[in-house]
Amino acid sequence: MDCLFCKIAEGSIPSKKVLETEDMLVFHDIQPAAPVHVLIIPKKHIVSMNDVVEEDLALIAEIHRVAQKVAQQLGVSESGYRLINNCGPDSGQAVHHLHYHLLGGAKLGALTGISDSHAAG
User: Fold this and answer.
1) Can you give the residue ranges of the HIT domain (predicted)?
2) Number of neighbouring beta carbons within 10 Å of residue 89
3) How many domains does the chain fold into?
4) Fewer Cβ close by (within 10 Å): the C or N end of the chain?
């Protein structure tokens, strides 16, 4: 499989890890759009939110639990953060592996330009 995020999850492409569990990986975005900008990915390859099936719902819940933990770890849980999932080409999804952007550390305003061009690893 030629998936950038699968390669990052397996360790064949390096990343600046924030948190890793058996099922998830959180790492810093290489082109941050905010002072805090990390990506949360399941290690299981799922193309997009449209491809989530019943058996993946626990994994989606885990992504949200991990987001809470990471926001606290990175010091943005009290001031606020944004959790973004791009789904499909019109949203800006270019990396076809389910992932969430967690952004914070500043007043984010009407930030709408979070495409996967920021998510290269």
Assistant:
1) 4-113
2) 10
3) 1
4) N
